Amino acid sequence: MPENLSGNEQNLKHYKCNFHWTQVFGKLHLASNLITSLPEGVFSHATQCKELLIHNNKITIITAGSFTGLKQLETLNLGWNQIASIPYGVFSHISQCKVLDLDGNGIKAVTAGSFNGLLNLVELILSKNLLVSLPQGVFHDLISLKVIKLYANQLTSLNPSIFSNLSQTPLVLWLSLPGWVKPNPWNCSSLCWLKHEEQCGNITLSGPVICSSGESWDSLQCDDQGGPSCCRVVFRHEKVL
Q1: Mean pLDDT value of segment 128-134
Q2: Phi and psi dihedrals of 191, rounded to 5?
């Protein structure tokens, strides 16, 4: 019996996963269909699934019940759907997840509890959405996070407190993507803390930061307060058990 169950490009509008035989599949590929919703318990028997690819559909709403049963899931790709918001605790049932892709959804808002329970998440992809801000505590549970992709949103600044509970350094941040038509309109003068953390080796910026004022990130002048000799304590460095 195959390890993969593929329903890619089948014009599926609904997916029912209510049969016990689905326990054997390690990968469920349901990309590029017409799926509009993920009802509660739809994956309740997919207990061995480690990779769920359901990108490029027409999903508008997700709930915590959508992912019940996916206890071993490591990769979840929900990119290029039509999800506008990420509810509190929606991913609480997939604590083993390491890669979460929400690229290209048109997400306008996340809350302080949107990513609760994702203690093992290594990579979070939030690029190509409509985010204008990230609230304090939004990454609180993401103690294993190493990569965040935020390019092509509507972000102007980042509060350093949103990274205060992260323990993995250097954290790789994607804030801009060269050649992308609509980059984040960064107010670089408010990101001096980020420049200092980059110089200290706590953050690695993947690609240039494109300042809305037209100034160069590399030539950005910041005062010495909180600079490389006395970097602001943004990240947790104690061992997480």
Answers
A1: 97
A2: -110, 25
